[in-house]
């Protein structure tokens, strides 16, 4: 038996392809307690996600959490489930398709974009295998998390490298760790807010930028997530020319009993409603795709909370999902990553020559304009 994965019928003249792996958290296969238990058991056992000594955490996870949580969470999933599956996965599939066609139009050589989820299906192993079969010798891994966090980005890095350790011929690799301040991403967010204002108005509305939370302990131990969320929020507020009293940042999706990053989204909305804020518009810039945490927690639970406490109008501004400007931002990230790659193999020699000619022409045209 071969210890490492490889092709026995390897051809030296096989055409190379650029591989792009997009990935997100993952989701259960069905909105049922059984499927949710399987998903949570994998997700919550990841030591990057829950940093508690293993024997103690095993007892809590299997003795308490996996007994009671799946039923409640399955019910929440059922409330957002679409005909053909989980919103997160459906959106990720559309993002994959749109990104691949943008990259094929933009880059001179052949490109394959595959989709793998950190937990559940389609797995990262399947997605990487697809790239290996497509002869991708250079791979850009693009986790669809704008903000770096050890619990998401580093966990993806662990999983990807664990898989690649089993390849005989490991590919060149670029791993995108964050894009929280990329201009095109901020502009896409700002445009989505402006479009919402055009469609629904904005009279006296306060904008809440809600990000997924983390245990406060992770920030104290050096995780840059908190700072990156603050930077995104500041840049978005600047792009929208908002005054300080027109917006705020908050953190949602608390889990467990310890302190998480503050201020909390639910507490903020409750306080706003109680102190006379009548209208809120909520955007979740850290979620590249709508999912349980935006569609159920924000758009259902937090909306009900705000209205119960005296708020009059609650509006959720959808995640960037497969918006054209979002796909353009992701395309730019991939193009930036590959542009520094040294020339080699069939993919690059001709392809880079074409790309360079294109760039020269553009540079000349720009020079002529000036
Ligand atoms: C200790 C627990 C958790 C940490 C840390 C955490 C970080 C984190 N998560 C996301 C993005 C998503 N999380 C989602 C669901 C979800 N998250 C946790 C727990 C932690 N997340 C749980 C237990 C769940 C499942 C639902 C539940 O039981 O409440 C999702 C949605 C998935 C879906 O199927 O729709 C996303 C997306 C980020 C970005 C992040 C760190 C910054
Ligand atoms: Fe989460
Ligand atoms: Fe949640």
Automatic annotation (TrEMBL):
GO biological process, one term: heme biosynthetic process
Keyword Cytoplasm on entry: yes
Pathway: Porphyrin-containing compound metabolism; protoheme biosynthesis; protoheme from protoporphyrin-IX: step 1/1
Catalytic reaction equation(s): heme b + 2 H(+) = protoporphyrin IX + Fe(2+); Fe-coproporphyrin III + 2 H(+) = coproporphyrin III + Fe(2+)
GO cellular component: cytoplasm
Entry's Gene Ontology molecular function annotations: ferrochelatase activity; metal ion binding
InterPro entries per the UniProt record, alphabetical: Ferrochelatase (IPR001015), Ferrochelatase_AS (IPR019772), Ferrochelatase_C (IPR033644), Ferrochelatase_N (IPR033659)
Keywords assigned by UniProt, alphabetized: Cytoplasm, Heme biosynthesis, Iron, Lyase, Metal-binding, Porphyrin biosynthesis
Metal-binding recorded as keyword: yes
EC nos: 4.98.1.1
Group of enzyme by EC: lyase
Positions bound to Fe(2+): 212, 293
Subcellular location per the Swiss-Prot or TrEMBL entry: Cytoplasm
Family, per entry: Belongs to the ferrochelatase family.
Entry function: Catalyzes the ferrous insertion into protoporphyrin IX.
Protein name: Ferrochelatase
Species assigned in the record: Thiohalobacter thiocyanaticus
Gene name tied to this protein: hemH
